[in-house]
Amino acid sequence: MYEMKNEYLTGIEMIDEEHTKLFEIADKLYNLLNDQFIPDKYDYILEVVGELKDYAKKHFADEEAYMEKINYKRMFTQKIQHAEFVEKMSSYNPDKIDADQKEACMDILEFINNWLVEHILENDLKIAEK
Hints:
The protein has 130 residues and is mostly helical. It has one domain (11-127): Four Helix Bundle (Hemerythrin (Met), subunit A), CATH 1.20.120. It has helices at 13-33, 42-69, 75-90, 94-99, 101-127. It is elongated, with a radius of gyration of 15 Å. It starts with 12 loop residues before the first helix and ends with a helix. This is Hemerythrin.
């Protein structure tokens, strides 16, 4: 369900590869949500959220280094949005996740999907226009 589409390609290989990885991590959570053979998904949810947060930090550092290298004028806005993403991923309460695992997965997936698509289409594609 979650996949990198051609419309999200920036043409910057490193950024596109890392965006692809972020979609793959989101897809893990989607598959977990729909896996009926794992009744208690709590540990898996926390693992995927942690992986997503950690990989996003790596990606953001790489993307910001690239923007700095090309003297990208909108880098400050990007940094703020990147920090907000990490903060949001850090804000998920393990107790709330455990109390309603399905709802937690759906909330996280909705956030990730909206953020990735909007951020890539509205911000990251502009990096390639520099």
